[in-house]
Design a protein that fits this description.
Order of helices and strands: EHHHHEHHEHEHEHEHHHEHEHEHEHHH
Strand content: 5-15%
Number of helices: 18
Largest sheet: 5 strands, mixed
Bound molecules: 5-phosphoarabinonic acid
Helix content: 40-55%
Length: 450
C-alpha cells in the first residue's frame, strides 16, 4: 500500500547524486538498527517507537470521555503547556480544524474555543486571555511532564485561581485535567491532593515525541478531531519506517539526505509550506529537530517559512542570499475545499487567464515555480507529499518526522533524545528571580550584568 506521506528528492539531482544517496545506505540502516534495538544513547526515551500499536487503551477511552465532558460543559478550553507539552496539540488542531477555529460560529465549530497559555511569561497575553474568557464556562488542561516548568506553572496558578473563584474548589477540580508524570512531580501531587483527573506522560517518551500520548490527544479530541484515526495513520507509517527497504523508505531517505546536505556544508534546513494551516506543524518540527540534533556544536538549524506569504519577505534571501540552506517543502496533495476563479467582464485586473482554475491549482503552480527558481538560485529542494488533510495522514506525518529524526540524529552522531542545553537559561532565570538554592549563582550573574 502507498504511504499517505512520501518523501521525494526528485528534481534535486543537480545537488544530490544517486551515488551519495547510495553511500549513505549503510549508515541509515545502521542508525535504524540502533533505534529499533534500543542500543544507542538515549535508549530510555524510545517509548514513542511502538506507541501507535502499543498504547494504553483504557486511558485512550478516558481521554475520549473527558473530551466529551469538556465539549459539553465548556465554551472555552484552555491548554497550559510549553515546548513538547504544547506544540503538538496546537499543530494538530490548527492543521485539522477550521482556519478561523475560534472565530467561526459554534454551530459550525461544535466544540469549545481553544486557547493556549503557559508558553510565555507575558502579562498582556494572560490578561487579554482572561478578558476573552469573560464570564463563559471554561476548563483547563495543564500539561507538564516535570510538573515544575516555570512558564506553565505560573499560568496554571493563575487559571486555577480563576476556576476556584468561579466554581469553588470542588467545582474547579471537575474542570481541571492534569497531564503529567505517572507518579512524580509537583503537579501530580497537587492533582492527587485536589482530585483532578490525570493523564500520563510516559516516562520513556520525551516532550517533543509526545504528541500521540495524552499530551496531544486530549486537546486534539476536544477540538473534535478523530484521535483513533490519528493513531491508525501513525501505526501505518511505523510499519513502513520499520520494514521498507532503504530505497523505498521515506523516513530513511529523508534522514540520509539531511545528513548529505549537512556534510556538504549546508547549515540550515528551511521547512516550507503553502498552506497556513501547516504553520504550527513547522513550529512542532523545529522543536523536534532543533532539540534533538542541535548539540555538541553540530546539527542543521531548522527554520521555517509560510509560502506564498514569506516569498514577499524571506523569498529574497532564499533566492539570492548566503548559500547556507536547503529547502524541504510539505505539499498537501488533495484540495479539500476547491475555490474556482471566475471570469470578469473587462478583465481590468488582467486575471482572466486564470478563469476556471482552482486556487489549489494556482497555489500548486506557485509552488512548482518557486521550487525551480530556488534550485536555479542554488537551493536544493526536497519534497514531502501528504495525501490529504486528514487525521490519518497527520498521524503518518507526525510519525514520519519522529522516526526520521531519531535516525538522522544517530547518523549525525548525537543523542537525539536528550536536551542538556535547555537547562542553562533556567538556572540563570531562577538565580535572578531569587529562587532558594541559587544564591551563589545570583551574585555571580548580578556582577556580570552590572
Ligand atoms: O521536549 C521537551 O522535553 C521540552 O520541550 C518540554 O516538553 C518542555 O520544556 C516542557 O516541559 P514539561 O512538560 O516538563 O513542563
Amino acid at each position: 500500500m502507498l504511504d499517505n506521506v512520501l518523501f521525494d528528492y526528485i528534481n534535486a539531482e543537480d545537488f544530490i547524486s544517486e551515488n551519495a544517496v547510495c553511500n549513505m545506505k549503510e549508515a541509515a540502516l545502521s542508525a535504524r538498527d540502533t533505534l529499533l534495538s534500543g542500543s544507542g544513547e538515549g535508549n530510555d526515551f524510545l517509548g514513542w517507537v511502538d506507541l501507535p500499536v502499543d498504547y494504553d487503551k483504557e486511558e485512550f477511552m478516558r481521554i475520549k470521555s473527558a473530551a466529551d465532558r469538556i465539549k459539553h460543559n465548556s465554551d472555552v478550553f484552555i491548554v497550559i503547556g510549553i515546548g513538547g507539552s504544547y506544540l503538538g496539540a496546537r499543530a494538530a488542531i490548527e492543521y485539522l480544524r477550521h482556519s478561523f477555529y475560534n472565530n467561526v460560529s459554534k454551530q459550525i465549530r461544535k466544540t469549545p474555543e481553544i486557547y493556549y497559555v503557559g508558553h510565555n511569561i507575558s502579562s498582556a497575553y494572560i490578561t487579554h486571555l482572561i478578558e476573552v474568557i469573560g464570564d463563559r464556562d471554561f476548563s483547563v488542561n495543564v500539561i507538564s511532564k516535570s510538573g515544575t516548568t516555570t512558564e506553565s506553572a505560573i499560568a496554571f496558578r493563575i487559571f486555577k485561581g480563576l476556576l476556584e473563584t468561579r466554581y469553588g474548589k470542588d467545582g474547579a477540580a471537575e474542570r481541571i485535567f492534569a497531564t503529567t508524570d505517572r507518579e512524580r512531580g509537583a503537579l501530580k501531587m497537587l492533582a492527587d491532593e485536589l482530585g483532578y483527573e490525570t493523564f500520563v506522560v510516559p516516562d520513556n517518551i520525551g516532550g517533543r515525541f509526545s504528541v500521540l500520548t495524552a499530551v496531544g490527544l486530549l486537546p486534539i479530541a476536544v477540538s473534535g478531531a478523530d484521535i483513533a484515526k490519528l493513531m491508525e495513520g501513525a501505526a501505518a507509517m511505523r510499519k513502513s519506517c520499520i520494514n521498507k527497504e532503504y530505497e523505498d523508505n521515506s523516513a530513511l531517505l529523508y534522514a540520509a539526505i539531511r545528513n548529505i546536505m549537512y556534510n556538504d556544508g549546508k547549515s540550515v534546513e528551511v521547512l516550507a509550506n503553502y498552506e497556513p494551516s501547516l504553520h504550527y506543524i513547522s513550529e512542532w518540527w523545529k522543536q523536534l529537530y532543533g532539540e534533538s540534533e542541535g548539540k555538541e556544536h553540530k546539527g542543521l538549524f531548522p527554520a521555517s517559512v509560510d509560502f506564498t506569504t514569506d516569498l514577499h519577505s524571506m523569498g529574497q534571501f532564499i533566492q539570492d542570499g548566503a548559500r547556507i540552506m536547503f529547502e524541504t517543502v510539505i505539499d498537501i496533495e488533495e484540495d479539500e475545499l476547491p475555490l474556482v476563479m471566475s471570469e470578469e467582464k473587462g478583465n481590468v485586473d488582467g486575471l482572466n487567464f486564470l478563469t476556471g482554475m482552482t486556487l489549489a491549482n494556482i497555489n500548486k503552480e506557485a509552488m512548482r515555480g518557486t521550487r525551480l527558481a530556488h534550485m536555479d538560485g542554488g537551493v536544493p529542494n526536497l519534497i514531502i507529499k501528504v495525501k490529504n488533510k486528514s487525521e490519518y495522514s497527520l498521524g503518518a506525518l507526525f510519525y514520519f518526522f519522529e522516526f526520521a529524526c531519531g535516525v538522522s540524529g544517530y547518523m549525525l552522531g548525537v543523542n537525539p533524545f536528550n536536551q542538556p542545553g535547555v537547562e542553562d537559561y533556567k538556572k540563570n532565570m531562577f538565580a535572578l528571580l531569587g529562587k532558594p538554592g541559587y544564591e551563589e549563582a545570583r551574585e555571580e550573574l548580578l556582577a556580570r550584568l552590572r
